[in-house]
Amino acid sequence: MSSTQPTARRTDLVSPRAHAIIDRLCLPIMLGCAAWAARRSKKAAAIILANALGEGAIGCFTRFPIGLVPLLSFRQHVRVGQVGGPLFLALGLLPNMPAPERAAVIFWGVVPIVLNGLSDISTPEAQ
């Protein structure tokens, strides 16, 4: 007997509401990191800024308690993050980037991978 509802995993530690709050807290920090990186590496700043703007946009379009235009389910939001995180992580490996800025780019690529991996998409509110 198969169910359309995914079963909860042991790694489902972050509720959709907690995920939304973390996303909203990370956005201004990411913007600040982009401003900081711009002093030494325009490339790193552009990557961090693109990540921040993408995260902000996808957050606005997700059916979160604080979503502005709820077009995407939380599950779709997580799937986008599972693609975007590795993409931004890979961009951190581009050449000619100072080490501190490279570390910031890589960090902001790892954050969505970890957060989305720990997020609970099995709840009814994630649908």
Describe the structure.
The chain has 127 residues and is mainly α. The protein has 4 helices and no strands. Helix 1 packs antiparallel against helix 2 and helix 2 runs parallel beside helix 4. The chain is elongated, with a radius of gyration of 16 Å. The mean pLDDT is 89. The chain crosses the membrane at residues 44-66. Keywords: Membrane, Transmembrane, Transmembrane helix.
Distance between the termini: 20 Å
The gross shape turns out to be: elongated
Number of strands: 0
Average residue pLDDT:
89
Contiguous uncertain segments of 5+ residues: none
Please report the number of helical segments. Answer: 4
Question: Radius of gyration from the CA trace?
Answer: 16 Å
Helix content: 55-70%
Biggest sheet overview: none
Percent of sequence in beta strands: under 5%
Following the backbone from N to C, one meets helices and strands in this order, namely HHHH
